[in-house]
Design a protein that fits this description.
Length: 444
């Protein structure tokens, strides 16, 4: 690629001054790259607030490889610039090569900053340890032994009321696949059962991708559309978010629906807004779907009570006729859709249904209520239970008016600290026993 001088109209090879300038800029990139240190050397945090070891290793290895590749690119550029090919090039071509190199450099730093934002919160008092506890909860909710290998994950806090996930193995800014799943949870939900609903909904996105649920369900949903009606087209449009709500409901029971109600409680004009480009169900219908999924997996009058309460909060009266008809059609199709969902047998589960794989028969409301009574007598057993089960039990206790918000928040703070500590010391039982003696299960 050759450039022409505007005055001389002759081909101009790169000048020594241009070579010097570009070499200086490239070497400046190298000096800045040397300042980017592994997180293990620069982030102060309590051991209990640290990332899960596999998440720490995966992140560090990914960023080390990125820095190594970038250094090789800069060194390669300098070799090209000072070699015969560079001497034959024009200043414009050399500058173009350097500009592309700098864009790649900035992309790598963007990835570093992304992980730095996540990890730096681990040095915050209390919140750092609680985040480590949330890592443990999320891993427990994602685990399906013998079905897939769960990727490492890490949690962090951000403003706003909604959670989000950057799934493992998806593209990062600037290229490359994320080595871990990164879950953003709303700071305003710390600490109570509502945090579990947001957290495990995002875990559901990762689990759904690992099981390839959308691909296995979509042909079934499209087949139902051949019988006519808008409801099944909407279910297909919303299937990704519905699957995540299903995962949360299957793990948490009524705590998932109560958490969802809290998140999507919006001013009335937003509650019934239908946007066909939005992958999220209409908020009013989304809560009704959660109640329907809960009723299918955990039969109990509480789901009808919540559905009626939701309709009392946001009555359909006053909506235009078209939307009322649409909502009525979706509600009528909902039992069939939910039945298809909970009994779906994706290839990844080798003949088991989603209901069976997630073990919902062990988390029925009466069982959760009885478990809470047991833990009131023997609090130590709660600290040995699976974290997702603990959230389900305490969420059911809240729904049954056996646990106040204040007691719940106090308990979850202790539980998250305990899970973080247990993870940090590799499940050494002795400190765990001390933590149990320090905190009792309260309720009424």
């Amino acid at each position: 690629m050759l450039a022409y001088d505007a005055d001389e109209r002759t081909v101009m090879a790169i000048s020594q001054y241009a070579v010097w300038m570009l070499a200086q800029d490239a070497r400046a990139l190298l000096t800045r790259l040397e300042r980017v240190k592994p997180f293990a050397l620069i982030e102060p945090m309590l051991p209990a607030a640290a990332l899960q070891p596999d998440a720490q290793r995966a992140t560090e290895r990914y960023l080390v490889a990125g820095r190594r590749d970038l250094r090789d690119m800069v060194v390669g550029f300098l070799a090209w610039l000072h070699g015969a090919p560079g001497k034959r090039a024009t200043a414009a071509e050399a500058q173009r090569r350097f500009t592309l190199l700098r864009l790649k450099f900035n992309a790598v730093l963007t990835q570093f900053d992304l992980f730095n934002d996540v990890i730096s919160q681990r040095s915050e008092r209390d919140f750092g340890v609680w985040l480590s506890g949330l890592d443990v909860v999320a891993m427990d909710a994602l685990r399906l032994p013998g079905v897939y290998e769960a990727p490492p994950l890490m949690c962090y806090l951000d403003r706003g009321i909604g959670a989000a996930i950057r799934r493992a193995r998806t593209r990062l800014p600037g290229g490359g696949a994320s080595p871990v799943a990164i879950i953003r949870v709303p700071r305003e939900r710390m600490v109570g059962s509502g945090i579990a609903a947001s957290l495990i909904h995002e875990v559901g996105h990762q689990a759904s991708a690992l099981l390839d649920l959308t691909a296995s369900l979509r042909p079934l949903l499209q087949g139902m559309q051949r019988n006519g009606g808008t409801a099944w087209r909407l279910f297909e449009r919303w299937i990704n978010e519905i699957l995540s709500d299903f995962w949360s409901c299957a793990q948490l029971g009524v705590a998932a629906t109560l958490g969802l109600m809290n998140v999507v409680s919006l001013p009335r004009p937003f509650m019934f807004r239908l946007n066909l480009d939005d992958p999220h169900p209409v908020p009013w219908l989304r809560v009704r779907l959660s109640c329907a999924m809960g009723m299918a997996m955990f039969p109990h009058p509480q789901w009808q009570r919540l559905a009626r309460l939701w309709s009392d909060y946001y009555p359909l009266e006053g909506l235009d006729v078209q939307r009322r008809r649409l909502f009525a059609e979706v509600l009528a199709a909902m039992p069939g859709f939910v039945g298809l969902l909970v009994n779906h047998r994706p290839p990844a589960l080798r003949g088991r249904s989603l209901r069976e794989a997630l073990g919902v028969t062990q988390r029925q409301p009466a069982q959760l209520d009885a478990q809470f009574s047991t833990w009131q007598q023997r609090p130590a057993a709660m600290y040995r239970a699976a974290p997702s089960l603990v959230f389900a039990v305490l969420g059911q206790a809240r729904a049954n008016a056996r646990l106040t918000p204040e007691e719940e928040s106090h308990l979850f703070a202790r539980l998250l600290t305990h899970w973080a500590l247990r993870s940090a010391i590799n499940d050494n039982p002795k400190p765990a026993v001390r933590a149990r003696h320090e905190s009792g299960l309260v309720g009424h």
